[in-house]
């Protein structure tokens, strides 16, 4: 049985909301907020060792190496004012196994940067915002302007707007799986780095393996040397997953696990959190970027839904992002064992897990198999599922060509399943449930018959 510990609870993390990238560029904003540290402060390493002495952390020499590199960056960022500086500061790209403390250390660094001109978010969430910004920029142009865009680069305009608001970008889970991201990432970051942006990133893959075997990867490859040029690369080289160590038991109605085996307990938990019976809850529709999303019933910020509605429908990343911003608790009934034979629902689940985890959404699954078996990793050489077969036809790919791409082989899902299981385990910890939900703002309207009440006081949402 998994044991887990929520190390994030010791560092209350900040994430940007969608309005951070939605406001117009004002290029004087960031120069009013120096990205400096206070003149008198405790070093990151000393803070870490204090936690070790109190028994909150186990000392790990690899984490100390990362701390020392970030401490050096922290000192360099004191009074840093791009683009006035003649020399920019190189950032840090850290990769390693799941649960080895990369995010915890980055968050400690982020919390110790005393400026508002900083941004910390999940990389996937960031790229969703970038695409929204590009869409909004193009929508603001007249038909004549759209037809004569030779001198205009929407990606550069978005990059300039981001750079006007922050010097420091801290990304959790830097990974590229979407071809739309792969096509623009080099141009986007080329412009960001030119404006003096400093980037700190954590991930599971070394730079050379990013978007490995991805569709049209040749368009992505120029980004890799750009990343290495502007970021030092650090391998954490750790096989320890600290999320699976000792934890405080989670006290929920009918048992202590947030991974349960009875749909009736989901109903009990919903009533416990909201004071309302499931049968009295109302359907709710989110209208987000012109798209309506309806899944299950809700009261306040607690949603009850089913696997079929959540992962078996054609929901995309932006849908899960809207749900993560709207709901503090998501309770899912009738969750099956996921399979490599059906990659699309598995892929949606992994994306959903990343976005929910980053905003501290409390996810409860009712599933008939143990948590360690929720993903069946057996890979078959049979026919591709219908959606992937249609994509093969659209791209005019032979089966041999398709099987060389991670989109069709499931390589990305195999790689990401450990992270998903590790995070799902942490979601069962009492410390995780005590973390405040970070909704951010949502450019959407909500169509519902619900009242606007929140769950009762025993809920940890803020």
Q: Are there runs of 5+ residues with pLDDT below 50, and where?
A: 1-5, 7-28, 381-388, 401-409, 441-462
Shape annotation: globular
DSSP helix fraction: 25-40%
Q: Specify the biggest β-sheet.
A: 7 strands, mixed
User: How many distinct helices?
Assistant: 17
Structural class: alpha/beta
What fraction of residues sit in β-strands?
15-25%
Q: Work out the radius of gyration.
A: 22 Å
Tell me the total number of β-strands.
14
**What strand line-up does the widest sheet have?**
6-12-10-9-8-7-14
- Cα distance spanning the termini: 31 Å
Query: Would you tell me the overall average pLDDT?
Result: 77
- The assembly state of the depicted protein chains is single chain
Notes on the protein architecture:
The protein has 462 residues and is an alpha/beta fold. 37% of the residues lie in helices and 15% in strands. It is built from 17 helices and 14 strands. The strands form three sheets. A seven-stranded mixed sheet has the order 6-12-10-9-8-7-14. A five-stranded parallel sheet has the order 2-3-4-1-5. A two-stranded parallel sheet has the order 11-13. α6 (154-163) crosses α7 and α12 (343-358) crosses α16 (411-426). It is globular and about 65 Å long. The protein starts with 43 loop residues before the first helix and ends in a 14-residue tail after the last strand. 42% of the residues are buried. The model is unreliable at 1-5, 7-28, 381-388, 401-409 and 441-462 (pLDDT under 50).
């Amino acid at each position: 049985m998994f044991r887990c510990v929520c190390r994030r609870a010791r560092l209350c993390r900040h994430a940007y909301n969608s309005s951070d990238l939605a406001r117009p560029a004002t290029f004087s904003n960031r120069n009013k907020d120096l990205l400096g540290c206070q003149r008198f402060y405790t070093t990151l390493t000393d803070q870490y060792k204090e936690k070790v002495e109190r028994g909150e952390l186990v000392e790990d020499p690899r984490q100390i190496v990362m701390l020392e590199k970030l401490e050096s960056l922290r000192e360099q960022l004191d009074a840093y004012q791009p683009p006035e500086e003649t020399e920019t500061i190189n950032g840090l790209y850290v990769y390693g196994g799941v649960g080895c403390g990369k995010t915890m250390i980055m968050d400690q660094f982020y919390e110790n940067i005393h400026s508002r001109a900083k941004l910390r978010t999940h990389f996937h969430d960031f790229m969703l915002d970038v695409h929204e910004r590009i869409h909004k920029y193009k929508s603001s142009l007249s038909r004549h302007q759209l037809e004569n865009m030779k001198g205009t680069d929407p990606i550069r305009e978005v990059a300039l707007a981001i750079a006007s608001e922050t010097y420091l970008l801290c990304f959790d889970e830097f990974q590229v799986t979407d071809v739309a991201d792969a096509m623009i990432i080099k141009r986007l970051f080329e412009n960001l780095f030119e404006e003096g942006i400093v980037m700190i990133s954590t991930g599971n893959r070394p730079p050379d393996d990013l978007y490995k075997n991805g569709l049209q990867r040749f368009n992505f490859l120029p980004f890799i040397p750009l990343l290495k040029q502007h970021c030092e690369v650090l391998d954490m080289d750790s096989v320890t997953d600290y999320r699976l160590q000792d934890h405080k038991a989670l006290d929920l109605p009918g048992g202590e696990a947030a991974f349960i085996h009875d749909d009736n307990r989901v109903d009990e938990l919903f009533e416990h959190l909201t004071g309302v019976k499931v049968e009295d809850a109302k359907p709710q529709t989110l209208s987000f970027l012109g798209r309506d999303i309806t899944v299950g019933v809700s009261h306040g910020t607690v949603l009850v839904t089913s696997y079929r509605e959540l992962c078996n429908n054609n929901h995309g990343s932006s849908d899960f992002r809207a749900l993560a911003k709207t709901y503090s608790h998501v309770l899912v009934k009738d969750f099956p064992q996921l399979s490599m034979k059906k990659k699309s629902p598995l892929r949606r689940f992994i994306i959903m897990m990343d976005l929910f985890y980053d905003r501290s959404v409390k996810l409860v699954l009712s599933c008939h198999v143990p948590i360690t078996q929720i993903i069946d990793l057996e890979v078959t050489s049979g026919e591709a599922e219908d959606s992937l077969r249609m994509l093969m036809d659209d791209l005019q790919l032979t089966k041999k060509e398709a099987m060389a791409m991670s989109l069709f082989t499931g390589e990305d899902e195999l790689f990401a399943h450990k992270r998903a299981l590790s995070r799902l385990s942490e979601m069962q910890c009492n410390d995780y449930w005590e973390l405040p939900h970070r909704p951010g703002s949502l450019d959407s309207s909500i169509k519902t018959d619900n009242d606007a009440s929140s769950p009762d006081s025993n809920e940890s949402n803020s």
